[in-house]
Design a protein that fits this description.
Length: 436
């Protein structure tokens, strides 16, 4: 394929290196991509944690085509279209009790900035506008908006943009290599890492200055950091004690990946808002949103009735094509019982990836639901170098993975066959070996 590659400035990509040897994907079906040179590449990362139902799912394709034939675009500013309402109702039905108001956006980053704005507006509405400090967590990822990088804790994502942050502080991450390096499921130790919220952060800033605590129930983008048993429960208890809002970023955990519709349900902790994106549309259209507790929503339903209650939204919030994809995806999850399938595939992935622990240079293997992280020893004192090498090699061996830092992630589509998961892990093993 002779595609010029200069003009497109690629996101989150070492552009110069990529363009020297482009890796182009030209088509996809099920759990397989086809590369430009005709090679098959197994999709070990569900596109980018999106494609749970597999690529080119017929129900989603047909729904999007039908939508295109009927209504290609209608804004949701002062008019509306049925798809957005239907999707929001459906999501509200699936969400934990009490969270039943849904603001639609186009991405996880927009979902994060939207949730932070809702939190600030809520505190103003209830007469506590001084609460404007956000608490995030080291190694957290909440997208790339200014709100998201403020509460996020990935140093490289913040470094170049340092001056323009919201007021924030950060909890330590839950990662504890001495006790968690080779753990199946949730670590038994580390619940006490949550206590810092009370003993340091509330103590330092004062609860009545803090708007919200924002965490991923399971952190994905910094290499699958799994919450210790009891950790999220403790965060919830501390938030309740001090009246802080708790926001779960479920952009990768929402819609099935951890064996329940939301990680909130899988792990038994209900936040005040949930951010979602990715799997909600199976990646077929940009779609995200914030599920908001009714009490927060209702507190904002005030002021003159001819004025919008929240001055916020995007031209494509609740775009008809995205809503059609979302509704079809939710139907697919239900009809094909894909979340039960995630539960049955979890031990298959778990056993396969823990088999990699004996490879030279593997320093950690961790897994939860249909996701696993395999961490490799740092090469030549340069964190991320071995991960980047292994990720590139994996593509050449025929499996798509992601390597935040030196951790290779596997998060296969929910429709994968056990045999395909074994193939993904075997190809990953070859890639890892090739870097030593
Ligand atoms: C937890 C989390 N939040 C937010 C985002 C940002 O989503 P988007 O890239 O759709 O803006 C991501 C993306 O990977 C994510 O993993």
């Amino acid at each position: 394929m002779n595609q010029p590659v200069d003009a497109f400035w690629m996101p989150f990509t070492p552009n110069r290196r990529f363009k020297a040897a482009p890796r182009l994907l030209v088509s996809a079906r099920g759990v397989r991509y086809t590369a430009a040179d005709g090679r098959e590449v197994l999709d070990g990362i569900s596109g980018l944690w999106c494609v749970g139902a597999g690529h080119g799912h017929p129900r989603i394709r047909e729904a999007m085509k039908a939508q295109m034939d009927t209504l290609d675009f209608a804004s949701n500013f002062q008019v509306g279209h049925p798809g957005a309402f239907a999707l929001a109702e459906r999501i509200a039905d699936l969400a934990p009790e009490g969270l039943d108001r849904v603001f639609l956006v186009n991405s996880g980053s927009e979902a994060c900035d939207t949730a932070l704005k809702i939190a600030l507006a809520y505190w103003q509405a209830v007469g506590q506008g001084q609460r404007n400090l956000f608490v995030g967590r080291e190694r957290g990822f909440h997208g790339t908006g200014f709100g998201g990088i403020s509460v996020g804790g990935m140093t490289l994502n913040r470094r170049a943009f340092g001056g323009a942050m919201l007021r924030s502080d950060h909890l330590r991450s839950t990662w504890d290599p001495a006790n968690q390096a080779f753990v199946r499921g949730q670590p038994q130790t580390g619940a006490e890492f949550a206590d810092e919220l009370e003993t340091r952060i509330v103590a330092l800033h004062g609860a009545n200055n803090i708007a919200a605590v924002v965490v991923e129930p399971v952190a994905g983008s910094t290499g699958l950091l799994i919450p210790p048993l009891g950790y999220l429960q403790r965060l919830r208890e501390i938030c309740d004690r001090h009246g802080l809002l708790l926001i779960f970023d479920e952009v990768i955990t929402g819609f099935g990946r951890f064996g329940d519709m939301f990680a909130s349900q899988a792990l038994g902790v209900v936040p005040d808002m949930i951010l979602f994106a990715k799997t909600v549309s199976n990646g077929a259209a940009p779609l995200g949103g914030v599920i908001v507790h009714r009490r927060i929503h209702d507190a904002l339903m005030q002021g003159p009735e001819f004025l919008a209650e929240l001055m916020h939204g995007y031209t494509c919030s609740g775009h008809p094509l995205a809503c059609a994809a979302g509704l079809a995806m939710l139907e697919t999850l239900e009809q094909e019982q894909l979340i039960a399938r995630v539960r049955s595939l979890t031990p298959v992935l778990e056993n396969a990836v823990h088999g990699l622990a004996s490879l030279p240079g593997v320093v950690s293997v961790r897994n939860l639901g249909l996701a696993a992280g395999i961490e490799l020893a740092v090469k030549d004192g340069q964190p991320g170098l071995r991960g980047a090498m292994a990720q590139a090699a994996a593509f050449d061996f025929g499996v798509l993975t992601r390597a935040p830092g030196d951790t290779l992630i596997l998060a296969p589509p929910f429709v994968s066959e056990p045999e395909e998961i074994h193939q993904m892990v075997a190809r990953l093993a070859s890639a890892i070996e090739s870097t030593f």
